[in-house]
Amino acid sequence: MTPVPEQAHRPVRDTLVSEWLKTGSTRAIWFVAGGAVLIVLAVTALTVSVVAVWEGLPQERRSDVFLTPPAQIALLPLQLCVGVLGVLAFTSEYGTGMIRSTFAAVPRRGTVLAAKTLVTGSVALVIGYVGILVTFGVSWWIAGDRSLGFNTGPPADQLPMLLASGLSVVVVALVSVGLGAVLRSTTAAVVLLVLLLYVLPMSTGYLPAPWDDRVASVMLANLHYQVGMDDFAMVYFDGLLSPPAALALMATYVAVTLGAAAVVVGRRDT
Amino acid sequence: MIEVRELTKRYGRTVAVDGLTFDVRPGRVTGFLGPNGAGKSTTMRVLLGLDRPTSGAALINGYRYADLRRPLVHVGALLDAGAVDGGRSALNHLRWLARTNGIGARRVASVLEQVGLAGVARSRVRGFSLGMRQRLGVAAALLGDPAVLLFDEPVNGLDPDGVRWIRELMRSLAAEGRTVLLSSHLMSEMALTADHLVIIGRGRLIADTTLHDLAARFQQGVVVRSPRSDELATVLDAGGATVTREADGSLTVTGKDASEIGDLAARNGLPIHEATPRGASLEDAYMELTSTSVDYAAGPGAQGVT
Question: In this predicted complex, what is the ipTM?
Fold first, then answer.
């Protein structure tokens, strides 16, 4: 038996690089990146069309034009994009059975979970911040000195909200890794993710006051408003959570799902 | 070297493996044989640290799998050739796997060469035939040049060329001094590939034997015909064989094989018209062994043995 030529072995780092190779060699990553580009383009097109409407209006009616901040319009689709990527980190391997090769190669399953989390989180960080900041920059540039409702005040005032929005994309990605690891099924995890990000926050409106605002304020999809101290948050959630409290709740969402994943993945037979 | 010690694995109320003990030694191909559902795959998953044993232990070179630092360098396994992401190329599949254990790119290229996939290394696995997937699975198992190899039903669904390739590969790996455990539910395949057999049924050990001994155990004597059968019977009897006279005038001889009977007859100047060893085929032997285990397990008093 000939000795295997090897590089110096550092289990954690090697697993991380391995997960990076895995992510880079699937089409999912390109679908997600392509999806993010399409989202930015679509929101930009929307901004352009609103500008056209504004141009077509008589002077006195132009102040009625109001567009939700384009970066906020882009946020949910971006979250869903990286969410699917996060879910697939584990479900794609459980679906094919490849997870057995992974765990046979790296028996410390916590290391695998950590590596997948880190890789997905990094990708989400790039996609989230690039998507949000590009959408923001392009929409403000297109609007120019026309007042479209979202571009009042100096652009720098938007920074906390932009940072919080990008962060929320990362948070959704990490939560999704946990959901995928626990549920093992892509369909189940994506359904739960949509429920968490879209359906549940929408449903809080049916609750009697003051529970509608209270429950809405702790929804994953609403935390970034409160972290970024958006006016919207002040109006709708009545400033229920302070920015640090909302940030802590974001961290709790991540800790609970990844914690559950660590326990379940570590114990489960595959 | 693989050591399985009093291994028990339950899934809920189902007992998949029940107090199983056996060793797999290096330098030979050990067939792991049993009907579907006998517990072969479960045992292999426990060996690879994928499933936790309910009790007992499965050790590889004296270690629990989970305690191996670079497991692929010690153990290579092919469980299910279909368990790859079809969207990835063969090369990329092996790359990520190699990287987990710090195995370099040169080794990846060399195993691809070894299994004959170098030409399609950059093609997506989705387009691979079952035979090509099996080859990729073998390449993955060989990545770390491990001393212990586990193959779960590697010839299932292969064409004759593929079957022969796997068979020769197993034999050459064993000849290099490696420990090779090969599971199958087909005795016919084992008869051609394995040196040693571990047969299980319903999670229990039925036989741990060499192929030769198994054949011998089911040997049912030699049928001998001679025009002077009475004299021959006397000679064989005196020579220490047990002779039974059959109604058709033939003799059934046990305790001596056909060549010994022929030599003895020649020395005494007795003609022999036929000497046919009569034995169960390995296939029959296997069927008998496993059906016995099933009957036993289903019968009264089969439970409660601890």
Answer: 0.89
